[in-house]
Design brief:
Blueprint (H helix, E strand, L loop, with lengths): L3 H25 L4 H18 L14 E4 L5 H10 L40 H15 L5 E6 L6 H12 L5 E7 L8 H5 L4 H7 L3 E6 L3 H9 L9 E6 L22 H10 L2
Parallel strand pairs: 1-2, 2-3, 3-5, 4-5
Helix pairs in contact: 1-2, 1-3, 1-9, 2-3, 2-8, 4-5
The protein binds thiamine diphosphate and magnesium ion (MG).
């Protein structure tokens, strides 16, 4: 049963994450705000409604793991880890500055809560696979969540990992695809089409479902439901909008790594309420 208070809390966190991430990108004049905004509702749902973790003990045994395979969307990841309590808010103001712990791509050696370094696309799934296999062998009940971009699925490493996950019946592994239908500069279907994506995963031995990736209630329902006993890994294809939340950014490939000027920043914060 869905708890309305949880949905409301996650919505508020996601709004704060969008505003704070956009401020980081504005101040740094660097970043990937389009992909931050398509992913934020998914990541907020995981951290504030689904995952088991303790920010005071980032290496806690038995914690659920989140792997941010689309490592360019650090505005989304860094604001989530901050809101979850891994580090204070003033760290966010150092985003991409020399010697900052908050690099353009996440680094587990600098930042608590980052499970593995990402940035080169196609690396998150194989690492998540390894963690899930370790969990299966040791009999742990932790879950591993990995978020990829949809363009990122053009990397073959994802499909090798998917094949092995299906073979090993890794019910503790959940892949979420941020299906915003845009990559860098173009649409995924114009570049190297992915549809029908759900059928591809089913053919690899996965359960596959589609959800509205901005509907917190729908995301909670599919991500928080028990996995153990299902005998299959889960692929959640989250249909999203790149740049979601700011009218002039939505569905525009140019906002993949576009940065706002002062006027655009002002308008965006007026809309993000
Ligand atoms: C191996 C590799 N090739 C190219 C890039 C450059 N790059 C960064 S993001 C991106 C597009 C990714 O598109 P998608 O996976 O759909 O991400 P999203 O739309 O969620 O931002 C590219 C080509 C990279 N980081 N790694
Ligand atoms: Mg995309």
């Amino acid at each position: 049963m869905l708890n309305n208070d949880t949905v409301q809390t996650i919505r508020e966190k996601a709004l704060w994450m969008r505003r704070r991430a956009f401020t980081m990108v504005y101040e740094a004049q660097l970043g990937h705000p389009g992909g931050d905004f398509s992913a934020i509702d998914i990541i907020a749902t995981l951290y504030f409604g689904v995952m088991r973790y303790d920010p005071k003990k980032p290496e806690l045994e038995g914690r659920d793991r989140f792997i941010m395979s689309k490592g360019h969307a650090t505005g989304a990841l860094y604001t989530a880890l901050c809101a979850a309590g891994y580090y204070p808010e003033d760290w966010l103001s150092t985003y991409m500055q020399p010697h900052s712990k908050l690099n353009g791509h996440p680094n587990r050696n600098y930042l608590p809560g980052v499970e593995t370094n990402t940035g080169p696309l196609g690396h998150g799934m194989p690492v998540a696979l390894g963690i899930a296999i370790a969990g299966q062998i040791s009999g742990s009940d932790h879950r591993t969540f990995v978020l990829t971009g949809d363009g990122e699925l053009q990397e073959g490493s994802n499909w090798e990992a998917a094949m092995t996950a299906g073979h090993r019946k890794l019910e503790n592994l959940t892949l979420i695809v941020d299906r915003n239908r845009l990559q860098q500069g173009m649409g995924t279907e114009e570049t190297n089409g992915l549809d029908p994506l759900d059928e591809k995963f089913r053919a690899f031995g996965w359960e596959a479902v589609m959800v509205d990736g901005h509907d917190i209630g729908a995301l909670l329902e599919v991500l928080a439901s028990p996995r153990f006993g299902k005998g299959r890994p889960l692929c959640v294809i989250a249909n999203t909008i790149k740049g979601r939340g700011v009218s002039f950014m939505e569905n525009k490939a140019s906002w993949h790594h576009g940065v706002p000027n002062a006027e655009q920043y002002r308008i965006a914060l007026e809309e993000l309420v």
